[in-house]
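Hello K.,

You asked for the raw outputs rather than the summary table, so here they are, unedited. I folded two proteins back to back in the same session to keep the settings identical. This is the first:
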Amino acid sequence: MRTSSALGLAAASYAVTVTSILVSCRLWLDLVGVPRGTSIRPMGLTLYADLAALAGTLVAGSLAVTIIVKGRGRAVPMFAGLVSLFLALLPLPITLTFMDWLVDRLGLVLAS
């Protein structure tokens, strides 16, 4: 695999990762209009946000593994693939952190 092809796939992987993070976090912004102190059970919202994060992780991770497999033995593709693979795992933790921050910021209570 040529270095330019590896970097192109890495850029695509980064774009998928960022897009899935933005979509997942955008879904949580529906809670902005809920009055402070309200007890909420956002199970459906959590499902959609987690599915968006999982889809982004799978697509970006597949691109990263492709870079690593096709670029065996070359430093730049291997490094780009490993960085892409690390970044592909970030959508779910970032989404959950954003959810916790937003719920605390809005003064909402997660029902148990």
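The second followed immediately with the same parameters:
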Amino acid sequence: MNAIDDAVTACHAAGYQDDGETAITITRMVTATSYPLPGAEVRSGGRRRLALPGRVERVTIGKVTTNFYRSDNERAGFKQFRTKDTPGIAAEAANRARALQSDAAPAPRSPRGGPSP
């Protein structure tokens, strides 16, 4: 297996599910040998995307980096790893899934039926 497959497997083990790919953009760049005509074709995007079901937590996995982020544009949730760092990715995915499960736990209720003080 390669680093991308290892990272995807680690995220799947924590409960993340496939959520498609990021958009692919192909542009042509001028190079020293092709000037003044555009020469080299540059491809960006196409990274694997995974998500925790029903949550705003997302992961994109590319050849070099793996990014954990929130799709609600909250910058505080962004974290980046080298894709080769499978243990770090597995730990981060598990921590985020565990934190979300504890957030989703129902609040304790008092014997009278209302929220406990």
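The chain has a mean pLDDT of 83.

Happy to rerun anything if the numbers look odd on your end.

Regards,
P.
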